Amino acid sequence: MDLSRPPREVLQQGLDRTVELTGSAAGVVYLAKDEQLLPVAGNSVKLEAIDALAFGEGLPGQVAEERRSRRLSDVPNEEALHLHLGFARVTPQEVVALPLLLQERLLGVMLLAATARYDDQALQDMDGLARQLALHFDYAQVLGQMERFSITDGLTGLFNRRYITERLEVEFSRAFRYGSELSLLIMDLDHFRQINERFGQAVGDLALAEVAKLIRRSIRDSDLCGRYGGEEFIVVLPHTNQEQAGVVAEKIREAVAGAEIGELAGEYLTISIGGACYPDSNALSLSELVQKTDEALAAAKSGGRNRSVIG
Description:
Layout: H1 7-22, E1 26-33, E2 36-43, E3 53-54, H2 58-66, E4 70-73, E5 83-84, E6 89-90, E7 94-102, E8 105-114, H3 120-151, H4 161-178, E9 182-189, H5 192-199, H6 201-218, E10 224-227, E11 232-238, H7 242-257, E12 271-278, H8 286-302, E13 308-310
Parallel strand pairs: 12-13
Antiparallel strand pairs: 1-2, 1-8, 2-3, 4-7, 5-6, 7-8, 9-11, 9-12, 10-11
């Protein structure tokens, strides 16, 4: 199993392997969250047709509540989850639900169904496979968290400077190679040092985190944003020309200028934004594009702040 893959893909791989090894006809993995079981992986079933369950509800819910495996044989037709085998729908002969436990912590429930009785070996294997799946899923989550920590800024949740710079290099190389447009915005909160001096660093940190949220809400999912320095932010806009970049910049500026941050006691933040676009700015390299963006930011500041300038 490839534990470097996203956690839910690890669950899917583990479920598929368990179905194969135990001779099951179908299977579902539920994740436990807030006293509910959410279906997240399926084999030979349609996940969209499976409802979330409360703890104590149905066989999986009972297993979640009791934290022990349950086996249901000779499933009554009127209560059965019918299985689609490609050519017909059949009633499973046997269903087994197993808790996915890591020490005492419940991660979820795995439900397996067979069209014939499970043999003793398959039943013995299930417990071990459920323990392995819980362990592998938890490990994949830890790896994912470590990766996120390595590329994100702890205060704002945006990409950190190292990672956003690496992504900018990739995006510029792609734009240069294929002749596509790429815009870059660098922005700086106005007079932010005074905010820290008047209200304290803790309030300043809260303000930075709030501005980061405003920036994320102002851009597309395909755009990239990061914390570039203390109170500096950077936004990378693939497939965006100069005019479009100006619209985005103004959207961000207006969002920040209009935001009420309670900890600032009625005082409003403003932000200055500089931008440049490839190839509109005639930058022939990434360093030139960054330089032109910095120059535009300097022009926004010298022009009175709380404004955007796209060079």
